[in-house]
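Enoyl reductase (ER) domain-containing protein
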Amino acid sequence: MDGKSSNNTAGKPIRCRAAIARKPREPLVIEEVIVAPPKHREVRIKIICTTLCYSDVTFWKLEHPPAIFPRILGHEAMGIVESVGEGVHEVVEGDTVIPIFLPDCGECTDCLSQKSNLCTKFPFKVSPWIDREETSRFTDMNGETLYHFLFVSSFSEYTVVDIAHITKIDPATPPNRACLLSCGVSTGVGAAWKTANVEAGSTVAIFGLGAIGLAVAEGARLCGAKRIIGIDVNQDKFEIGKKFGVTDFVNSRNIGDKTVSQVIIEMTDGGADYCFECVGLTSLVHEAYAASRKGWGKTVVLGVDQPGAMLSFSSFEVLHSGKTLMGSLFGGVKPKSDIPILIKRYMDKELQLDEFVTHEVEFDDINKAFDLLLEGKSLRCVIWMKK
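Predicted structure tokens:
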């Protein structure tokens, strides 16, 4: 039933609560908002739970473009389809879905290929709008436009998302685990599984053991890596990392005059087979590249640095070392086909998701989730819209 629904809210605006970022670095304000009905190829979702990812914090802190306020942040979530717009046939009212910031149109050359997850029809960008039309579906009670975030805006009881950003999932999946696969965990696991294609018995070095780095470790563990070296400035991360397969740890503050790459090369007798940069610092990309083995070493960049940050390598080094350097957006994961695989692996007790959730709060306490992440106390804090 394209664009039709049996419920009494379909086709009408919904009044609900949302946590709005009105000014940079100020606590989010929970207010009543109006969520417009979905238009052509759009879906309106009732959010069940959402989590806080560091990208939300980055854009909450940002004072210059692409910063824009007032905005409804949030992009890691799980929800139920409330109604669908015209031309939507992939999901129906009542389906369990995950909204994902990276589009998967299912039509372009890239989306039809197994080689890439970078859609050509909807190139990824940090936009304040919904994807096709570049307008908003949110207004506050004064009629002011509220801007979208990463095509998801999950810090609202209801949100409107383009069908290209919707992945249908098994309704038996626990909501407070499914939401983790919207961004961070999928990015890390996918970087090892899809982008690097880590081989069994190989050596992996992970620069930065935040949620993404730990997810890389989990992905490398699933791929059968023999040695997983975690690098971080926080010694506590070794104990946490062991849960996800980290076998060795380097505290970059305790290595004296040596560089991290020198330490890794000594530990691995020539360099790691796979290096992952999960912090977002050009200096660490250079260290990771230096720490990867000549001839076949792969360095994968996952961290998000400042927009103008530049990398510089000598052409001699690139030619003579034979190494690979690659970027990995959303871990190379194709949302509509790969997320269901990850969910099945979780349900089959292969993929660990439970260990990523360190805290759970109710929607009214959403600012506590920000505090916990900023204080370095949480990996992922699940925010329940209604417990």
